[in-house]
Amino acid sequence: MEHSHFPFLKNLKENRFFLLAGPCVIEDEESPYKIAEHLVKICESYNIPLVFKGSYRKANRSRLDSFMGIGDEKALNVLAGIKKEFNIPVVTDIHAVEEASLAAQYVDILQIPAFLCRQTDLLVAAAKTGKTVNIKKGQFLSGASMKFAVEKVQQMGNNSVMLTERGNFFGYQDLVVDYRNIYDMQQCNVPVIMDVTHSLQQPNQTSGVTGGKPELIELISKAAIAVGADGLFMETHPNPSEAKSDGANMLRLELVEPLLEKLVRIKEVL
Q1: Within 13 A of 107's CA, how many CA atoms are on the CB side?
Q2: For 12-42, what is each residue's pLDDT tens digit?
Q3: Rounded to whole angstroms, how far apart are CA atoms 214 and 30?
Q4: In whole angstroms, what is the distance from residue 193 CA to residue 232 CA?
Q5: Do residues 249 and 200 make contact, with C-beta atoms less than 8 angstroms apart?
Q6: I need a labelling partner for 33 at 20 to 30 A (CA). Which of 54, 69, 229, 234 fits?
């Protein structure tokens, strides 16, 4: 993995991994700062490079009445504020071509949702901003097939691209993680991240609200570090039951530190 294209990884030690973490969506203008402050303290103590994650808008929702955000500009300013106050990079999702240039004015990493990883126009638009592009592997794709998504970004002259594994559909309402995908995606010579929360989703529930199995986050995380994932992605919230999006598969904020402590020890042994 070439670190020169990823400034936030330049101090990454061999016995460490990096972390993309934060709430699913920017729910208000205050709580993201509190979450970021908590994560920064933990990651500094364990020498883990941190990227703060928060979606400024949620476009992929099951129902029309689902929470989508507090407003694009307001949410993007929250991300920019966290970047400035804590001196850490920030990442957000984009869903359409016109969002790439907008979000790029505020964040360091543009994330392509799994459902959209084959959308050529979106990948090209993200690449042309010059920002790092994190592409989530589609739940319907193999790890090896993601080389074409990587090539689309790189052929635009942007070599700052990462891939994220987030499970594969297992029937209509479940996901399963095939850890061979981590190895296969690493053959693209890009950082490969394991999404330890979305991979435990139970989608397509009849209620229109996605379910999840957060009790397995530790299991998925340990296995990912053991097989050599370069980084982890997790969504966290002080009270997941009150989260306005994806609360069913989030990690409670107070559980982040004990989990990272275990993962660091595993990585050190390896």
Answers
A1: 30
A2: 988 899 999 999 999 999 999 999 999 999 9
A3: 25
A4: 5
A5: yes
A6: 229
Amino acid at 215: E
Q: Any idea what the Cα angle at residue 188 is, between residues 16 and 123, rounded to 5°?
A: 105
Helix (H) or strand (E) holding 237: strand 231-237
Ordered by where they begin, the domains of the chain are 7-263 (3.20.20.70)
Nearest to 177 by CA among 222, 210, 230: 222
> What would the two tokens of residue 184 be?
């296969």
Amino acid at residue number 249: N
What's this model's pTM, rounded to 2 decimal places? Answer: 0.94
User: For tokens 């509190």, what's the residue?
Assistant: 34
Tens digit of each residue's pLDDT (9 = 90 or more) over 215-266: 999 999 999 999 999 999 999 999 988 888 777 888 999 999 999 999 999 9
Pull the structure tokens for residue 224.
């990912």
Q: What's CA 153's distance to the chain center, in Å?
A: 18
Q: What percent of the chain has pLDDT over 70?
A: 95
Distances in whole angstroms, Cα of residue 266 to Cα of each of 16, 216, 254, 263: 10, 17, 20, 5
**Neighbour-count burial of 211, counting CB atoms closer than 10 A to its CB (0-12 exposed, 13-18 middle, 19+ buried):** middle
For residues 141-146, give the mean pLDDT. Answer: 97
| In 155-231, alpha helices (H) | 180-186, 217-226
